[in-house]
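Illustration: EGF-like domain-containing protein.
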Amino acid sequence: DNQPIQTCIHGQRYNYINNQNSTFCQCESGWSGAQCSIEYKCDCAPGSLCIDRSICVCPLGRFGSRCYLIQSSCQLKTCINNGQCVPGDERYRLVQMNKSMCICSEEYFGNHCEHRQTRIDIS
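Result:
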């Protein structure tokens, strides 16, 4: 069934260990397909491993579909009053690199959701 691949345009040809008559292409980074002839752009964070067009393998301390979320950024962030910590994303430098932010419940605000909003009802 497996016909030997004659050419690996952007990669290296190897024989299968269990069938020396069949070969496969190991593509260079940025290339895919049976003959490594399909170019693709890696959307993964720097330092991550791209597998074809859609899979990112994240290094230690990173997560998310493209490895842009920083795992340790919420470990030291103390959100209070039911605030939710959101890990830092290096693509959006809202505060600083490796920083997280708190999403506060409706009645609180501040970096740690430490301030309660004051409401004045006028009737």
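Reading the tokens back as a structure: The mean pLDDT is 83.
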